[in-house]
């Protein structure tokens, strides 16, 4: 339901009709064979392929030299992806009449290609390409297959390391499982399961012993009458974007929907509407790390082929911008599917039928350059990609583990979900995550609070979470920058943390246990993202995020008066340190006044090295001692 195979089926029936026309001179003289053949044609038109196969086999039994019956049998096997049987049928045609029909060459080529026999497929594609009545479109298609064969032969000669691990019986069943979505901490998975013709979401949590048995996600989302699937989950596990088809509030055949987790259940899905959804086919959403960019697949007008990958931006009012096509370095005249944008916000993985590959859909990787352009994609290679379909690919936050869906021999049945260690060449940029809980310092009860993480290099938010978070937050952050984290809740002291990720060599996450202190006289809070040059007191631009949260704190707690404190380490004389700390506190004081905070609510004082909070014998300790803080002086 969430893939569009219309073009593939149309292509088959065009070829089939040509075959029927060409076969008329080859009709058998054996009456019983002819009768079975004609009855098979009736079943084919009704898509009753099993009955058609039985009748064609009977026709061949009655007349072993009935080339048209073998050809038609091969076409049905090819359509139903029974490529070994198709190959045998086409070879029988050629034994009877080597020049029966050029479409026999095409059928034999396709059957070998999708069996992974690229060296055997190539000469048949080449021979079919010489057919005199090929249309320009058919010529381009065959040229692509020839390139795919050449790529496939080379890829098989140079395999990449690949050791897939089935996620096991808690996740996979004899049904079809695909489109895995995993939270940044690798502790929760949501995936699509197809039972008979119905697609629904299932979820599981990871324990030290492995994944728990998967259960249905939510009755608010899963339905019996509609299909739900092709989803993505935000890194913190709070927002779910997914595809649903033919719903009463839909705008096209399939639309993108949104649900938010409230406690332990999910909200009733919401259709964001136009321009994200149109009367075309929209599916397979992928949300970036900060939740402000959504990639998805659509066959809407203005693309390069059947299904293209598009991207929309979240606007300040909560709506979505007019989606933009990712362009010719990603999209082709053929179909692209299942985009996944890694939390580094630059590495895109997706499936494509258009770029040189090994079969139906290969997985590719592309990196967005600083100018916003995408590099031409790289095939992840064999045997990650094979002649079969690969889809629903994603990579863990640390970049080490990949997850995807495939029909690998030895699985539980059909498409199963697998994990494997990702090759170094295909890893994204270093990313880690920040995971925290927020509680009241006195009562230890969970507190919903606003969490903001700002990239201190650019001044732009890297993560924003509202106060409806149940005291939990999780954010993924690229490790090529430094960040300031602030937590705000009215009636409580400000919490500030500095995340210097660019100095980390590993991808270890930050785990924060934040205990917010209620506002009271003499309560103190340290602002860890107030910066000055060495031995100077002019505020650096990176200080703006903490200054902004302090201004908000004073505006929303209007009865509070504070003293701004400056502190230094023990390097230098007492006199110099005392003066420096006082000038730095005064600089913050002046900044607040310049932003409409009344001077009557403010005071400042420098304490020099007199109040250390860490050992001055180490650089880390001295760094902690060089700080700006504020104390509640009165509450009127």
From TrEMBL:
The keyword Glycosyltransferase does not apply. TPR repeats lie at residues 33-66, 67-100. Its main location: membrane. SUPFAM superfamilies: DPP6 N-terminal domain-like, OmpA-like, TPR-like. Keywords: Cell outer membrane, Membrane, TPR repeat. SMART domains: TPR. It comes from the Bacteria. It is found in: Cell outer membrane. InterPro entries: 6-blade_b-propeller_TolB-like, Bact_OuterMem_StrucFunc, OMP_bac, OmpA-like, OMPA-like_CS, OmpA-like_sf, TPR-like_helical_dom_sf, TPR_rpt. This is OmpA domain protein. It comes from Arcticibacter svalbardensis MN12-7.
């Amino acid at each position: 339901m969430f893939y569009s195979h219309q073009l593939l089926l149309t292509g088959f029936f065009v070829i089939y009709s040509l075959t029927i026309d060409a076969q008329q001179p080859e009709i058998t003289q054996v009456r019983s064979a002819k009768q079975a053949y004609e009855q098979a044609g009736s079943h084919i038109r009704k898509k009753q392929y099993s009955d058609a196969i039985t009748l064609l086999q009977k026709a061949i039994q009655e007349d072993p030299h009935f080339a048209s019956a073998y050809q038609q049998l091969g076409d049905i096997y090819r359509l139903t992806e029974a490529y070994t049987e198709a190959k045998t049928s086409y070879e029988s045609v050629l034994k009877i009449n080597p020049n029966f029909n050029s479409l026999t060459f095409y059928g034999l080529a396709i059957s070998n290609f999708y069996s992974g026999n690229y060296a055997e497929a190539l000469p048949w594609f080449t021979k079919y390409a010489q057919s005199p009545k090929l249309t320009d479109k058919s010529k381009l298609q065959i040229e692509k297959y020839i390139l795919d064969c050449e790529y496939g032969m080379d890829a098989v000669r140079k395999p990449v390391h690949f050791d897939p691990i089935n996620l096991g019986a808690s996740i996979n069943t004899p049904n079809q499982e695909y489109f895995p979505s995993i939270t940044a901490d690798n502790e929760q998975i949501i995936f699509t399961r197809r039972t008979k013709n119905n697609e629904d979401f299932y979820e599981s949590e990871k324990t030290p012993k492995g994944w728990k048995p998967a259960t249905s996600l939510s009755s608010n989302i899963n339905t019996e009458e509609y299909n739900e699937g092709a989803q993505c989950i935000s890194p913190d596990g709070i927002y779910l974007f997914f595809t649903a088809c033919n719903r009463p509030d839909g705008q096209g055949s399939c639309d993108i929907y949104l649900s938010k987790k409230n406690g332990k259940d999910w909200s009733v899905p919401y259709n964001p509407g136009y321009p994200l959804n149109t009367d075309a086919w929209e599916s397979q959403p992928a949300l970036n790390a900060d939740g402000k960019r959504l990639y998805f697949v659509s066959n809407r007008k203005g693309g390069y082929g059947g299904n293209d990958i598009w991207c929309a931006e979240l606007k300040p009012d909560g709506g979505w911008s007019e989606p933009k096509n990712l362009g010719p370095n990603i999209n082709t005249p053929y179909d692209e599917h299942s985009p996944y944008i890694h939390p580094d916000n630059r590495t895109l993985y997706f499936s494509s039928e258009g770029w040189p590959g090994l079969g139906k859909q290969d997985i590719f990787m592309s990196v967005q350059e600083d100018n916003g352009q995408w590099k031409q994609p790289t095939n992840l290679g064999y045997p990650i990609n094979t002649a079969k379909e690969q889809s629903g690919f994603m990579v863990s936050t640390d970049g080490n583990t990949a997850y995807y869906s495939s029909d690998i021999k030895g699985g539980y049945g059909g498409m199963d979900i697998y994990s494997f260690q990702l090759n170094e060449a295909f890893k994204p940029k270093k990313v880690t995550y920040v995971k925290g809980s927020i509680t009241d310092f006195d009562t230890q009860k969970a507190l919903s609070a606003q969490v903001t993480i700002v990239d201190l290099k650019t001044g732009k938010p890297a993560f924003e979470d509202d106060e409806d978070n149940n005291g939990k937050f999780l954010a993924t952050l690229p490790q090529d920058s430094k960040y300031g984290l602030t937590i705000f809740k009215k009636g409580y002291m400000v919490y500030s943390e500095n995340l210097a990720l660019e100095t980390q060599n590993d991808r270890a996450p930050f785990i924060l246990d934040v205990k917010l202190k209620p506002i009271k006289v003499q309560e103190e809070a340290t602002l860890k993202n107030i910066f000055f040059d060495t031995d100077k007191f002019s505020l650096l631009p990176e200080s703006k995020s903490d200054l902004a949260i302090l201004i908000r704190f004073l505006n929303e707690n209007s009865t509070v008066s504070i003293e701004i404190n400056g502190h230094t380490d023990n390097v230098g004389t007492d006199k110099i340190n005392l003066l420096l700390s006082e000038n730095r506190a005064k600089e913050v004081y002046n900044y607040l006044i310049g932003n409409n905070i009344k001077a009557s609510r403010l005071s400042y004082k420098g304490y020099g090295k007199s109040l250390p909070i860490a050992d001055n014998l180490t650089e880390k300790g001295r760094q902690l001692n060089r700080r700006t803080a504020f104390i509640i002086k009165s509450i009127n």
